[in-house]
């Protein structure tokens, strides 16, 4: 068979980072424009691409990853096309365009190495979860690829006073400019979330977006580790 099956051949490159189907991202690598990606996420590549596991820049940031949720990263460099995936999860590609995003580390697949990034505590949650929730923040002009368990929804919080409530186990990412606070609901405990006891939600307000996956992560994101 000399021709690939219809609909499965690689498409021409049109952007630095783009979806190839819903479960894979294609990255156009060029010398000097490196990429950080989740270790083990490479499924294929074309050209000359090198990989460096746990590079110094990642080791420095990892010291701040106090919750143990930080996924190991590798640095990808060279010239060619790189294909990444994460066990068949849906992949969402975002061009930050100078803005920022706060990402659950378990949903972070890849991002441009020149972007500013770090690990920060989410303010407003300490009284609900001990030290609070830690997330990876990424900002600047460049590309980010996220994973989601199923096709996610992107909720525009607007700029009014109304709040948007999200189950923390379904949360993927949000605009870092949003205000976040925790809310407990005893009346809805049998309807929201899967844990026993009182229900817990995150309330977002302000101007920005929230990315929510249609499946609850099995891990307890608000449990303090370390």
Automatic annotation (TrEMBL):
It holds the Pfam family AIM24. Signal peptide: none annotated. This is AIM24 family protein.
């Amino acid at each position: 068979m000399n021709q690939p099956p219809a609909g499965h051949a690689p498409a021409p490159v049109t952007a630095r980072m783009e979806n190839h189907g819903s479960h894979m991202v294609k990255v156009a690598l060029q010398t000097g424009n490196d990429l950080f990606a989740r270790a083990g996420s490479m499924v294929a590549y074309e050209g000359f691409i090198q990989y460096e596991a746990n590079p110094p820049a990642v080791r420095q940031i990892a010291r701040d990853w106090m919750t143990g949720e930080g996924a190991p990263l590798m640095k990808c460099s060279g010239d060619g096309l790189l294909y990444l995936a994460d066990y068949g999860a849906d992949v969402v590609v975002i061009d930050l365009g100078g803005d920022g995003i706060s990402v659950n580390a378990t949903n972070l697949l890849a991002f441009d190495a020149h972007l500013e990034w770090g690990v920060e505590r989410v303010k407003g949650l300490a009284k609900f979860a001990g030290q609070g929730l830690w997330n990876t923040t990424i900002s600047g002009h460049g590309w980010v690829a996220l994973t989601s368990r199923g096709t996610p929804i992107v909720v525009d919080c607007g700029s009014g006073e109304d709040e948007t409530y999200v189950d923390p186990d379904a949360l993927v990412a949000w605009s870092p400019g949003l205000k976040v606070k925790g809310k407990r609901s005893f009346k809805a405990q049998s309807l929201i979330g899967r844990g026993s006891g009182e229900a817990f939600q995150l309330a977002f307000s302000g101007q920005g977006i929230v990315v929510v996956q249609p499946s609850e992560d099995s891990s307890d994101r608000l449990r303090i580790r370390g």
